[in-house]
Amino acid sequence: MLVIYREDIIGDIVKIIKGMETNNPIKIYVFSPSQDPWENSFAEVKDKVELCALPQAILNIYRSILKGK
Fold first, then answer.
1. CB atoms near residue 10 (< 10 Å)
2. pTM, to two decimals
3. What is the dihedral of CA 24, 55, 46, 25, to 10 degrees?
4. Spatial distance between the Cα atoms of 43 and 39, rounded to a whole number of angstroms
5. Which residues contact 41 (CB under 8 A, 6 or more apart)?
6. Phi, psi at residue 14, to the nearest 5°?
7. By three-state DSSP, how is residue 6 classified?
8. pLDDT in tens, 6-39
9. Local confidence band at 41 (pLDDT 50, 70, 90 cut-offs)
10. By C-alpha distance, which of 12, 22, 20, 21 is closest to 42?
11. Quick check: 66 and 36 in contact, CB under 8 A?
């Protein structure tokens, strides 16, 4: 499982995943304020990943933490 907090590193992560051998898809959650599923960004490695929506409960927790800073 992989949780990505910064959208600007997705390209680097795709490069890393390309070189990986995996028997099971890597579940990837991308933290993003826009509900973008990032399917186009992971098209090159779609056979190695499973893109997952960031659960709303987790998103709400992050929002409450960031609001306090």
1. 16
2. 0.72
3. 0
4. 6
5. 10, 11, 14
6. -60, -40
7. coil
8. 889 999 999 999 999 999 999 998 877 666 778 9
9. very high
10. 12
11. no
Length of the chain: 69
Helices (H), ranges, 7-69: 10-18, 56-67
Distance CA 17, CA 9 (A): 12
Q: Which residue has the tokens 């680097």?
A: 12
- What CA–CA distance (Å, rounded) separates 40 from 11? 11
* Residue 47 tokens, joined: 């056979």
Name which of 5, 36, 2 is nearest 20 in CA terms.
2
CA dist 20 and 13 (Å) reads: 11
What's the rounded Cα separation, in Å, for the pair 11 and 18? 11
